[in-house]
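To the wet lab folks,

You asked to see what we're planning to order before we commit. Fair enough. Below is the target structure as tokens, and below that is the sequence we designed to fit it. If anything looks off to you, flag it before the synthesis order goes out.
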């Protein structure tokens, strides 16, 4: 018991077993020692050189604790300190619970808790007893001491059994270690003698002491001389000197190899715990920042699905997290971040790198789509074409960009329109010239083809389908020109795109278009919503430049000469991003082999024959005026409408008066050139209008052919079309800038006025030429070789009367129809055309109308005389022959009319028949004229006789009266005058006796005349006046 008490006093460093208070120095000393021990340990740990076996050390130190209830340190490694343990003195089952009940706060202070746990190296017995057993009495402490003693004895017994069972091994190991040490220290030599020490039992302390003693002895008893005297070459490699690396140089290499192999084999296994803990930490941080870690994949998925709303949302979240992390780094400054903060920084950096890389690629793709949107916008039906650029601009503003996407899009749109205008204008004009050259070098259309086109107006109007107005090649070229102007100037063409471009620019300048655009992350894109003042001026100038380019191309097309250089077709179309412009600009020429030219064999230029169309690039060679007026009126309508649209653009109307003048000049020049070219074609077609005559009766008017109606339609179409060209009536004039479409100048009106009169003259001359053309002529354009019926006069009359169709080969028939046509022209067609001209051009044709009427009268009279001249000559010959015969004057009273009268009347019957069957309206005029000539000739022949006896007087009277009564229906005042003159002349050339005897013979002569007329009723029935119902019936049957 005394030993036990002494041991207690020694262990606790107290002087009595019954202390009344706990010594204060014990607490301070313990705390100081503990603190100093920890500081030394930390300092040693910091200053210690990192061992080459650090991997093994870390692997060993990271092994999991096998003690149940052990806890981890702050670094995450397990140790032998348990979270709680029972009271070593046996007073309770839980130290922490008891201390908590006593009011000692141990939950959050690990270091303080370890000082109360026996398993901890920082266990403080003094603190434990002062707190855990502060109220315990001596008996309780003694009982606790017994419990602690039994516990120690149990553990000592176990240790004793372990030592006893392995004692021999410990001895052998100790001897081996001592021998090895002696060998290494003395290099195989005998150690110096040592003083006899007091024998003591074998213990580890003795061993350590002897080790220290021997070391001190070696240093003080001649080890230095031995080392210095031994030669270097006899030193053993195991000598414990620096040169031999203190005896380990021999095994250093193998040990390093083994260490490396052990590291390779056992490193992953031994380091698994550390990796597990690291992975757990990483997994925790990843789970904490899961939404940010997944941001990169979410953005990639949004880009793939084109879900731009989600993309913007995810990108905004990523930017917010990145900025928060940057702010965290700035706030930390030089302070090391915690483990959680480190992982946040790493996750943010990695996430932002991936996201920014994807967003930059996506932005690059959106920029490309935005600049190429002009070609592919119409094919994208996901959103309206006019909103695609707004969507892409808004997306770029949401993501944030340095360049202004509005400005970039507007510039790219300007470049696209500029290139498109140049391509459309240059290539289309070259293609048109190629077609012109092919047409100019082709064979001219025949007269029959030309006549069929001029005659087509009688079948349909100019405004209907133009296919029959001209040849297919000419119509194709007209359509090509219309397509070119429509592509440039229509609302669906390039001009429409320019107008849309300006509307878009105006919307951005006014700020209306930006209202729907986002301002981006934290409003960073707000600055891109405004266009600079210089940018606004540049855009206005760009719009004016686009308008001027369109105007220049159209002006060159109308006012310029045909292009000589067609080398543009030898090179392929310039590449257009997205979709080829060639498909939009010339859809028919892309695969047309006619525009695939060989540079070595270009189409020859148009031949120079002095034709009017050779100096006009817009007029197809061999085109007629009908197709010309049809297409030119539409083309001028496009030019006028386009000029008005271009003048209505704000930069042009407000900033550039010069451009307004150029637009007016465009309309004026195009109009003047069109009128000049059209008048030349009109003049040529007026010369060829004679080819229209087909000598077929008109269905509406049986007395005329189709010529008057065709001529009326031809002239009417030309007047209507020229009126549209002069006044550009098809153009939609816009109010505003200075009346782009001005009134036509007087020079043009006078040109049209003179050409109208000229065409009338030429058309009438052609009609007369048709009528006077010989019956048979080689190359007759109208008929085949027709034979005039031969035979006697009666047979010919019967043949003509019985013929159901017009004998176009008979010159008299042609003249009669031409006379009938002239009568229709004088009475209806020309007055209507004059009225149309005066209405269309707001002028009076007083002088021209009178002149035209006089010309018509002269032509009609000349043609009438030409037609009646053969009949008049025939009558003259018959009358002169008959009266001059010796047998004409009877010796006695006359019993019949002389044969020459019958022959002359029969010739009139032939004429009557021909006229009445060909042109019934001319019958009275022709027969009356011939009767006048008949009477005149009788008067002239009768005057040749100086004296008339009674028989001659009666015969002359009978002949004259028979003719007068037979043709009484056609007697005119002039005829009556001639007959009166005949009777007066006869009366003057007879004596009174014969005169008085004639009065006595008159009753008999009347009876004879009556009988003769009854006998000739059948032969001369055609001269009989018809009743009204018969006349109407004949007119109806034709």
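Sequence we intend to order:
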């Amino acid at each position: 018991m005394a030993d036990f008490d002494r041991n207690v006093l020694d262990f606790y460093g107290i002087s009595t077993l019954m202390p009344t208070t706990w010594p204060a120095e014990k607490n301070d000393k313990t705390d100081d020692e503990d603190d100093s021990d920890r500081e030394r340990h930390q300092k040693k740990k910091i200053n210690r050189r990192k061992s080459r076996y650090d991997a093994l050390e870390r692997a060993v130190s990271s092994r999991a604790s096998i003690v149940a209830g052990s806890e981890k340190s702050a670094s995450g490694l397990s140790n032998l300190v348990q979270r709680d343990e029972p009271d070593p003195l046996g007073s309770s089952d839980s130290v922490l619970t008891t201390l908590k009940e006593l009011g000692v706060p141990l939950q959050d202070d690990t270091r303080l808790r370890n000082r109360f746990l026996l398993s901890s190296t920082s266990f403080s017995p003094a603190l434990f007893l002062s707190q855990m057993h502060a109220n315990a009495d001596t008996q309780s402490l003694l009982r606790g001491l017994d419990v602690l003693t039994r516990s120690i004895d149990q553990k000592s017994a176990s240790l004793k059994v372990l030592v006893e069972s392995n004692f021999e091994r410990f001895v052998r190991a100790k001897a081996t270690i001592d021998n090895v040490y002696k060998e290494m220290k003395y290099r195989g030599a005998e150690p110096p003698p040592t003083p006899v020490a007091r024998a003591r039992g074998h213990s580890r302390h003795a061993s350590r002491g002897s080790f220290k003693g021997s070391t001190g002895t070696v240093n003080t008893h001649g080890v230095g001389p031995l080392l210095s005297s031994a030669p270097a070459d006899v030193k053993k490699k195991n000598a414990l000197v620096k040169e031999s690396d203190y005896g380990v140089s021999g095994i250093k290499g193998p040990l390093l190899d083994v260490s490396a192999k052990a590291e390779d084999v056992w490193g992953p296994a031994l380091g698994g715990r550390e990796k597990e803990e690291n992975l757990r930490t990483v997994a925790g941080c990843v789970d904490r920042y899961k939404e940010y870690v997944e941001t990169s994949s979410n953005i990639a998925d949004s880009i793939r699905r084109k879900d731009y709303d989600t993309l913007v949302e995810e990108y905004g979240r990523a930017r917010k997290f990145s900025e928060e992390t940057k702010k965290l780094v700035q706030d930390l400054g030089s302070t090391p971040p915690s483990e959680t903060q480190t992982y946040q920084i790493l996750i943010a950096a990695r996430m932002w790198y991936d996201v920014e890389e994807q967003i930059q690629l996506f932005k690059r793709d959106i920029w490309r789509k935005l600049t190429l949107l002009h070609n592919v916008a119409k094919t994208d039906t996901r959103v309206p074409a006019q909103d695609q650029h707004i969507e892409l601009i808004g997306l770029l503003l949401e993501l944030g960009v340095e360049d202004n996407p509005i400005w970039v899009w507007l510039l790219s749109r300007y470049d696209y329109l500029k290139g498109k205008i140049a391509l459309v204008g240059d290539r289309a004009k070259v293609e048109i010239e190629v077609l012109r050259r092919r047409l100019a070098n082709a064979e001219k259309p025949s007269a029959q083809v030309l006549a069929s086109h001029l005659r087509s107006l009688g079948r349909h109007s100019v405004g209907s389908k133009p296919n029959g107005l001209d040849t297919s090649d000419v119509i194709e070229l007209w359509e090509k020109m219309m397509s070119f102007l429509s592509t440039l100037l229509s609302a669906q063409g390039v001009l429409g795109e320019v107008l849309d471009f300006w509307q878009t620019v105006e919307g951005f300048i006014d700020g209306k278009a930006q209202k729907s655009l986002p301002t981006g992350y934290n409003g960073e894109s707000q600055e891109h919503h405004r266009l600079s003042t210089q940018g606004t001026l540049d855009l206005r100038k760009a719009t004016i430049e686009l308008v001027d380019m369109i105007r220049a191309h159209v002006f060159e097309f109308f006012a310029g000469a045909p292009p000589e250089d067609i080398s543009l077709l030898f090179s392929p179309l310039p590449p257009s991003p997205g979709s080829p412009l060639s498909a939009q600009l010339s859809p028919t020429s892309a695969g047309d082999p006619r525009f695939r030219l060989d540079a070595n064999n270009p189409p020859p230029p148009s031949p120079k024959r002095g034709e009017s169309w050779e100096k006009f690039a817009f007029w197809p060679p061999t085109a007629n005026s009908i197709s010309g007026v049809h297409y030119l009126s539409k083309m001028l309508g496009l030019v006028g409408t386009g000029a008005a649209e271009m003048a209505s653009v704000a930069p042009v109307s407000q900033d550039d008066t010069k451009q307004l003048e150029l637009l007016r000049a465009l309309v004026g020049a195009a109009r003047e050139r069109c009128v000049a070219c059209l008048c030349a074609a009109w003049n040529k077609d007026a010369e060829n209008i004679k080819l229209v005559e087909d000598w077929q009766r008109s269905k509406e008017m049986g007395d005329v052919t189709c010529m008057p109606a065709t001529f009326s339609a031809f002239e009417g179409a030309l007047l209507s079309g020229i009126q549209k060209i002069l006044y550009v009536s098809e153009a939609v004039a816009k109010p505003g800038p200075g009346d782009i479409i001005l009134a036509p100048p007087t020079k043009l009106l006078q040109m049209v006025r003179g050409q109208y009169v000229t065409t009338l003259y030429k058309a009438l001359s052609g009609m007369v030429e048709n009528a006077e053309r010989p019956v048979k002529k080689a190359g007759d354009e109208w008929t085949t070789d027709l034979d005039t019926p031969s035979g006697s006069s009666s047979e010919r009359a019967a043949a003509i009367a019985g013929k159901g169709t017009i004998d176009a080969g008979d010159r008299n028939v042609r003249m009669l129809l031409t006379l009938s046509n002239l009568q229709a022209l004088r009475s209806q067609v020309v007055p209507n055309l004059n009225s149309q001209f005066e209405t269309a051009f707001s002028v009076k044709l007083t002088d021209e109308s009178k002149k035209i009427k006089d010309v018509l009268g002269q032509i009609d009279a000349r043609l009438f005389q030409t037609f009646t001249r053969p009949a008049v000559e025939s009558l003259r010959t018959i009358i002169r022959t008959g009266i001059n015969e010796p047998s004409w004057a009877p010796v006695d009273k006359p019993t019949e009319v002389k044969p020459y009268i019958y022959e002359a009347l029969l010739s009139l019957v032939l004429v009557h028949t021909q006229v009445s069957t060909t042109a019934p309206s001319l019958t009275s005029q022709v027969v009356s004229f011939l009767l006048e000539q008949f009477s005149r000739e009788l008067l002239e022949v009768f005057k040749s006789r100086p004296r008339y006896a009674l028989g001659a007087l009666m015969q002359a009277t009978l002949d004259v009266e028979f003719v007068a009564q037979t043709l009484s229906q056609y007697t005119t005042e002039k005829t009556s005058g001639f007959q009166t003159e005949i009777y007066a002349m006869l009366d003057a050339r007879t004596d009174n006796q014969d005169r008085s005897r004639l009065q006595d013979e008159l009753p008999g002569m009347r009876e004879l005349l009556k009988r003769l007329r009854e006998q000739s009723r059948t032969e001369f029935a055609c001269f009989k006046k018809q009743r009204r119902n018969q006349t109407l019936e004949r007119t109806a049957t034709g």
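Structural context that might help your review: The CA atoms of residues 201 and 959 lie 201 Å apart. The two ends are 171 Å apart (CA to CA).

Thanks,
Computational group
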